[in-house]
Amino acid sequence: MLTTTWYIDFEGYQYNNRYIVKEIAILNKNNKTECYYYFTQNPSDVPLIRPINKTLDYQHKRHRLDWEFGNTKLLDAIADIKDLIGRHDTVLAKGPEKTRFLKKWLPQITEMCWLTTPFKELRRCCGEICHFRHGLNCARRKVFELYAADCLY
Ligand SMILES: [Zn+2]
């Protein structure tokens, strides 16, 4: 069976010790035209308006994805991603917390613990930002960064 490797990353907020995903992206290592990304809505049990909170303000300034932004439910995006990623494919993510968060849906996910360079120092793929052009803290760009950095190892 033909299997491949995918890179996955997301952008969003951390609120009450949970991730609020706003943008999630995957990239196929063997075929870079296969890059998919989704803008996801907040879960229904968080406030409709972004709470006044310095940490959330800071996170918003970083990625410029509004609290109310998103056109698809996270679980629908995940279902789509699970369809795209074969059961025997490898899925790579950066960071232990993100990896743990995604593992409940993607049990085959592996943390790229060999990639110790922080994201802010990975700047090879600035041209790969998504069409929404909300800045460099973009999940689409970041999966390309993971790919580029991984290929150096
Ligand atoms: Zn983006």
Describe this protein's structure:
This protein has 153 residues and is α/β, with parallel strands linked by helices. It has one domain: 2-Layer Sandwich (Nucleotidyltransferase, domain 5), CATH 3.30.420.10. It has helices spanning 54-63, 74-84, 96-103, 139-151; strands at 5-15, 18-28, 31-39, 90-93, 109-111. A five-stranded mixed β-sheet has the order 3-2-1-4-5, with helices on both faces. It starts with a strand and ends with a helix. The model has no long low-confidence stretch (mean pLDDT 96). Bound molecules: zinc ion. Zinc ion binds next to helix 4.
Can you tell me the overall shape? Answer: globular
Poorly predicted tracts of residues: none
Q: What is the SS-derived class?
A: alpha/beta
The CA-CA distance between the termini, in Å, is 25 Å
Superfamily at the CATH H level? Ribonuclease H-like superfamily/Ribonuclease H
Count of discrete structural domains: 1
* Attached small molecules: zinc ion
Q: Order of helices and strands, N to C?
A: EEEHHEHEH
CATH architecture: 2-Layer Sandwich
Q: How many DSSP H or I helices?
A: 4
Question: What is the third-level CATH name, the topology?
Answer: Nucleotidyltransferase, domain 5
Largest sheet: 5 strands, mixed
